[in-house]
Design goal:
mainly alpha
Length: 214
């Protein structure tokens, strides 16, 4: 399936419209209960994958998208009150994706120098980023450490899978960007455009991962 064919799917079109409406809610067009569009955009991606992607263990990707939508729901209704609920939901989503990608582990991808460099840089980044956050985490140190390890494993499992290609690698790296900005915003400093960066990188992470599997 080409990119144009992918985008012409009613589910993908619906997902993108919901993505755009939710993005507008960060600017001059506040929308009541805008999180509904956030959740709907991921649910639509899930429905597309359910009808178009069929591999062994693909059920883990379906479940991953379900937990992602659930995480969006928790953070959407009250981010401060249900932050830990959202964190656990996204953690479970990543674990499901890790199981799927490791099921298609490719030793050939492990031999690719670029893949090794990306993984090495990700490990360095995770250590450096945790040091930045550590003093602000308080009781959440252990959950955040577990989440960082899980996120790195997601990247490694995808990069070393038989599906490894530029779209997938960019997708999982965008996940890292989205979660990193979210953590920085939550625990260090809420800078301008943080929400927009988190949403755009998170959505296109999901978008590109699904596209790479079609």
């Amino acid at each position: 399936m080409t990119f144009l064919q992918y985008f012409s799917s009613p589910w993908i079109f619906t997902s993108f419209i919901c993505f755009f409406i939710y993005l507008l809610s960060f600017f001059k067009y506040p929308i009541k209960h805008s999180w509904i569009f956030k959740v709907s955009s991921i649910v639509a991606l899930g429905l597309f994958s359910f009808s178009h992607i069929h591999f062994n263990f693909i059920e883990f990707i379906y479940i991953s998208l379900f937990f992602s939508a659930l995480g969006d729901f928790w953070l959407g209704i009250d981010e401060k009150k249900f932050f830990l609920h959202g964190l656990i939901s996204f953690l479970l989503a990543h674990v499901c994706s890790i199981i799927f990608f490791f099921s298609y582990f490719s030793n050939m991808q492990f031999q690719v120098l670029v893949n090794k460099i990306i993984i090495f840089l990700l490990l360095l980044f995770s250590i450096f980023f945790y040091k930045i956050l550590s003093r602000s985490l308080n009781k959440l140190k252990i959950p955040v450490i577990v989440y960082i390890i899980t996120l790195i494993l997601l990247n490694i499992s995808a990069i070393l899978s038989t599906f490894s290609k530029i779209e997938l690698i960019i997708g999982v790296l965008l996940f890292t960007l989205s979660d990193s900005v979210l953590a920085f915003q939550k625990f260090k400093y809420n800078f301008k455009l943080a929400n927009q960066i988190i949403w755009v990188s998170y959505y296109f992470a999901q978008f590109l991962i699904i596209f790479s599997l079609v």
